[in-house]
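tool_call predict_complex ligand=cytidine-5'-monophosphate
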Amino acid sequence: MELKRIVLGVTGGVAAYKAAELARLLVKDGLDVQGVMSEAARHFVGAATFQAITGHPVFTDLWDERVDNGMAHIDLTRGADAILVAPAAADFLAKLVHGRADDLLSTLCLARDCPLLVAPAMNRRMWEAPATQRNIAQLAADGVTVLGPDSGEQACGEIGFGRMLEPFDLLDALEARFQPKRLTGLKVLITAGPTFEAIDAVRGITNPSSGKMGYAVARAAIEAGAEVTLISGRVCLAPPREARFLPVVSAQDMLQAVESVVDTADIFIAVAAVADYYVLNPSEQKIKKDAHILTLELAPNPDILASISARPKPPFCVGFAAESENLEEYAELKRRRKHLPLIVANDVKESVGSDTVRLILLDEAGHHVLEKADKRTQARKLVAHIAELYNTRYQ
Ligand code: C5P
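tool_result ok
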């Protein structure tokens, strides 16, 4: 489902000032945003701020005469694809649990026929209180999506859970929740990160791949409804909770892990930066320094992607080509050599370790440029493209 219109509810809390930034991001993202504030929220931030950002009058009162038929509690959510309450104060969450409807926002939530998302924000003791925890569990059981909270420094000076997620992360979580389920029922296998080829007990050959692109692709595939297995070299990222996660070190390990699960995969996306060579006879002990020249003997690693795509019945295989020159030409050659329906080209100088990237998708039909954007956005667009190609081929 595409998200077009949203009611942004703001309740009383210091984080209310961040809701103004959230409103700006939502509008910038192309959404029609209707602001609704609780009475308490108006002590923290002015309605005029939301009005100016969203271009709509902001409502607080159940009996507001600006709504034509006096049915503000129904009219404001008519045609809305979601209600997002950010920040959602402890008291407001308690109200939701009990179905109370004593102000406009709580009444809108009770009378809605669209999904409700809440972003709790409160002091850590209030968050940890058994009553709040019970309320959160109940809301989740009632089908409400709870976003956050985060942990960190709080306005009261304490440190702990209760901080509202940052506006950008809320926008991202909202988008994630509404991604079309293009890959439902499909198993997607993804490799990510660098490999590490041991030289001795402590040293090795690796590369600066951060794993950010591969992990973003894994996340996007999960959002699209796929069952994801993520095989990753050593990176500093937490794998998505919903993925089956297989950590590996070397290219040989990665090949073994891929072979152990690939039979059931419908789609294989090789994002990993696999070392082309490994060290023959690595030393079991740390090599001691001396005055001699040290020579390492390197042997070529197996090409994981090429070996999978050469199988008699391969999954739908997608490769990545990081190049430093002749980007499209080299990537297309790789696509043909490895017999891939799709390869994703990117400039290694811009992309490695970075949060943003420009991608060129090369397939049988030609090339499609995804202009520079953050990796999460690019991963979603890539998943949409893969789903389209996959569905044309197999359905
Ligand atoms: O290293 P190269 O540029 O050939 O990588 C292109 C694609 O092949 C990438 O998707 C990469 O993950 C995959 N690859 C692989 N095994 C290798 C080398 C590359 O799966 N040994």
